[in-house]
Structures are given as structure tokens and as C-alpha cells.
Amino acid sequence: MAKDNLQVLNALDVAKTQWYHFTAIIIAGMGFFTDAYDLFCISLVTKLLGRIYYHVDGAAKPGTLPPNVSAAVNGVAFCGTLAGQLFFGWLGDKMGRKRVYGMTLMLMVICSVASGLSFGHNANSVMATLCFFRFWLGFGIGGDYPLSATIMSEYANKKTRGAFIAAVFAMQGFGIMAGGIFAIIISSAFKARFDAPAYEDNPLGSTVSQADFVWRIILMVGALPAALTYYWRMKMPETARYTALVAKNAKQAASDMSKVLQVDLEAEQQKVEQITEKPANAFGLFSREFLRRHGLHLLGTTSTWFLLDIAFYSQNLFQKDIFSAIGWIPPAKTMNAIEEVYRIARAQTLIALCSTVPGYWFTVAFIDKMGRFAIQLMGFFFMTVFMFALAIPYNHWTHKDNRIGFVMMYSLTFFFANFGPNATTFVVPAEIFPARLRSTCHGISAASGKLGAMVGAFGFLYLAQSQDKTKTDAGYPAGIGVKNSLLVLGGINFLGILFTFLVPESKGKSLEEMSRENEDENGEGP
Fold first, then answer.
1. How many angstroms separate the CA atoms of 512 and 435, rounded?
2. CA distance 376 to 396
3. pTM
4. Residue 476: left if φ>0, alpha if ψ -120 to 50, beta else—which one?
5. Burial level of 330, CB count in 10 A (0-12/13-18/19+)?
6. What angle do CA 249, 252, 255 make, to 5 degrees?
7. Where in the cell is it found (predicted)?
8. Chain centre distance of CA 208
9. Over the stretch 47-90, which tens digit does the pLDDT of each residue have?
């Protein structure tokens, strides 16, 4: 099989782990670092936006964003991301990974800055412009998913490819932490310089006018890491698999990779033409042949990512209740505006440090030893177990004495999401599809995940409301309650276990072996 593969691709497959692998991880990972920062930091500032723009005179509690505004501010980036994943995924296969990669990054930089420069002073115009730019920010972030994964998988060697793709994804953990740490620094600085009384002591004075700068600075700093990597992204050569197998330019692929690997490689133009002319390499995404070869694979990657993200993004709902319950975040009326940002940022950074970041790096360490399938199965299994363990004795967990136990269980659920399906659903779609459809299929899988994220973040916002209409949050109808929501999530994770069986194991195999690009029609190798 290997002798039929191009020398360029073989050289990449068996290359020892070396410096260019790490630069590729950093260059691709910085995009993810920025994505996580941008998508995440909005949750740090929504409370502040409510206090600044939705203050009600004489109210006992500080102003909050109305449900529809809150959903728009939080959800509009998801909509943009979903659209960006599909569009840039398709474009990455049409124009090449590298050219599109620069475009997504530029879009992220411009929109990060613009989202902090909202126009107008009244609540509606600020929220409208914030939502507009966050949509396009999401659009750029969406493009980063399929492209980062595809570029990394096409650059990596066979033996440690899983770890490299997972490492790019794990940069998300650092992005979340950076968002939290930066918010802590900014809010501390402003708190020290412009101190203010608590809301209950002086409702108007508790939000100083300078607080308006806090959220803008936090949002705009997201542009920095992206801008810094732009130059390096532009210097990175197009991946050899795209140049050879899709653009059919053997000479360019050989010369690009000779520079990267620092060995002499010959251009095998004839072989490129032989491989790309095989009927196995002619079918499109909507063909019978694609359905026959990869239909179940695509169903597997889309369904598992969809189910995982429902569970993963529902965590944001419980997070604030949990923080308040453990007493990490006191009641809003006892704090001034900037102090509240500080407290929320501190709590989220601690969670990221303790469960999110370690989970990602466990995946990086074990994915090429245990394999994708085992990690994904194990992750979904434990998530199911912990969700039911939280749900069934839910009343037990609400008592003050049992709070620590609740937080432990809760953290473990998300540790196994990250040391489990959250990482593997990102890795696998970049490995199992043919080169000319790889970025498109990854984009489709990722978009399906974002659809799940919307269900998780918004469906459960309404579902988790108390069944008793008098106890719901301002403006929400009655729901099914937190306990039943947790039971539903347990069921969703169980479905994830079942759909995992559709996904093939790609550990230690070359990309061409997985996508069967070197086979003749009868499925035989040469």
C-alpha cells in the first residue's frame, strides 16, 4: 500500500516529531486560543452589561439582560460559528487550506475589535451592534474549526497525529483560562482605582461610569493573539496533501515539503495523476459512492458531536447556580458592578484550572495509546454515570452540607467530556475522509455540534426553569426543573455511547489508508 502512496506524503507520515510540528500546533492552536477566549469572555461580562444598560431605578436587585437580549448576545456567535464552519469548510477544499486560513483570522481580528466599539449610547443600539459584530466574529471562528483540524492532520505524522490535533484543540483550555485571568486583572485594576459601594447601599453609585470600559477592553483584547499569529500563518506553506491530491501539483508539494522536512523529495507528477484519476477519487459529497463509503462515518461524526455539545454547553446553565450555591459568588445586590466581574471571572478560572485544562491534556497524552474510540466511549460512559448520579438524588445535593460533593461530581463530568468526546469528536473527522472533502466534512460535523450547542445553551435555559411558575427567572415560562433536565442530559450522553460505534478507529493509520484514496474501484490496494 505504502509504495503506491506519494513519496511526499510518506515522508510526512513517517517523519520524526520535530520542530515544525510544534510550530504548526502553535500556529493552528492560537486560532483556538482566540476562539475560546472570544466565545467565553462574553459570559464574564453579560452581568455587567445588564447592570449598565438595564438598570431599573428602585429595583431591589441590579439590572439584568432581558431573556431575549441575553439569548441574542450569547447565541448570535453560535449562529455565526455554525455558518462559518459550513462555508469555510467548503471553501477550504475549494481554494486550499492556507488561503482561507488567513481570511478567517483577519475576520476574527477585525470583529473582536469592532465588538468592543459599539455605536450609540442607549441599550438597543449597543446590543444591536454588539450582536452584529459577534455574529461575524463567530463566522470567522467557525472557519477555524475545519481548517485548523485539517491542516494539523495533514502536516502530522502517523504515530502521533491524534496527539497533535488534540493539542490544537486543547489550546481552548488555555484560551478560557486567559480570558478569566485577564478579566481578573482588569477588574482588579478598575476596582482599586474606582471603588464603589455595593448595590444595596447605593444602586446608582454601585456601577461607576468607567465600568463601561471594562467589558469593551475584555472583548477587544481577543484580537491580540490572533493578530500576532497572522504573519506566521501566511508564511506556512499549503499542506502537501492539498497541493498534491486536490490541486494536483506534485512539483509544488515536493518543493514545499522539502523545505519543511529539510530533505530532498522528488516531484511525482505522473503518480499524482494516476491517483487522482482513479474512480475512487472522483465522487463528490452528494454521490452514491460517498454514501456507500463514508455515509455511516459522517453520521457517526455528526451525531456524536451533536449529542456531546448538548451536554457540554448546558453546563453554563448550572454553573452560575453552582457558584452561588457554594458561596463563591455572593448575591448580586451585595456587590458593586466591577466586583461582580471579578468574582465570576475568578470562579470560572478555577473551574477551568481544575477540570477543563487537565481533561484536554489527558487526551493529548493518551489518544495515540488508547485510541480515539476507547477515549470517546469511556468519556460518554462516565458522563452518563455522573449525570445520573447528580440527577437521581438531586435533592440530597441541594443541601448546604453536600455542596462540595456536588461540585466534585460536576467537575468530573466535564473532566470526562474533555478527556473524552469533546476532544475526539474534533480529531476524528479530520482523519477519516478523503483529502478533497476533508475540510468540508469536518465543517459539517462541527456545525452539527454547534447545533447541539444551541440546543444545550438555549433549550435547557427554558427547560431547567422551575416547574412552579412563581419561582422562574424574570421573563421565563415554567420548565421541567433542574433534576429532570439532568436526567434528560444523562439520556443524551447514553445515546452518545451508541452512536460512537459508527466511528472507525484511525489510530496509527495514514490518512490515505483511512480514506481509501489509493484503492482501485474493487476496493483492492495495488
1. 8
2. 30
3. 0.91
4. beta
5. middle
6. 145
7. Membrane
8. 34
9. 899 999 998 888 888 888 888 888 888 889 899 999 999 999 99
